[in-house]
Amino acid sequence: MAKRDYSLLGADARRAVETGLAAAQWYHTEIPRKGMKALMQRSDQPAIRDTFILFGCMILFAGLGIALWPSWWSAPFWLAYGVLYGSSMDARWHECGHGTAFKTRRYNDWLYQVASFCMIRNPHTWRWSHARHHSDTIIVGRDPEIALMRPPDLLRLALNVFGIVDAWNGWGRMLYNAAGKVHPEEADFIPEQEQPKVIRVARIWVAIYAATILLAVLTGSILPLMVIGLPRLHGAWHHIMTGVLQHGGLADNVIDHRLNSRTVYMNPVSRFIYWNMNYHVEHHMFPMVPYHALPKLHEMIRHDLPAPNPSIPAAFAEMWPALKRQLRYEEYYIRRELPETARPYREDLHAEAMGAA
Question: What keywords are assigned to this protein (predicted)?
Fold first, then answer.
């Protein structure tokens, strides 16, 4: 592949379908049926606990920020509120979109809607987008959620540390949808009967933002926007930091998650913010296992997986050299080595990517 075409309607999209990469049969580590059933058991309790902690902290930090405004003493509380708004909600959007965070469906739906609003991701568009991401993970031309393309756009990545590109695009797409339009690429994966819902939600969001901006104008203060909207910018850094590690620098156009996904051991605070998505190989292999069971799943199948990166800095130390090399040599990627106890990669399924390792 001399130059990748990441458009969902382009040449590589057609090639993925023609070669069988689209909607392919992926490799899975074998787990006894009884063990799998236990792992997939859903429960409301862990997510209710974590959600009370999350929103309790958000109310506390926003309250202190408002009380101390406009003093600089308010800054640490706004920064903390921002991370919970602009990063924790990314993980909540993700897990509730899978419908696995809570046992009770309506709890998943409620938190999914709130988290989608905070992240400026239309809940109907992104539900179908993420389904495609799982069926065609890092397949060029098929996966609409590839964060680091080849060659990597490092300027875009740097801007997104402050939410600039993603938030701007999110607000732009919100207005586009609110005008009654669905983008052609989105129409490629959103069923036609679901598309009116995309438009309806966008119009509700425009009304909420308009009311927030009006309140800010009437009060002569940006405080309403510090609660709604702006935290998506200054709070984005954590979800960008963790999100690029999911697949960054690894193989594309393969059908084994051990080749294109990365598991990273993280500190407890980051794991709470990220809701255990640092166990990312495990999540992609078995996306219906709830977030709170991922550590147990990891222990059950780690014999068949590449060694996890021991920390966030260690993961970046592995990834950054690969990204820099991809600036010059688009075909380069990191090949994750398997332990002796693992079943080998099927070279016949990944011949093209293997040749570039």
Answer: Membrane, Transmembrane, Transmembrane helix
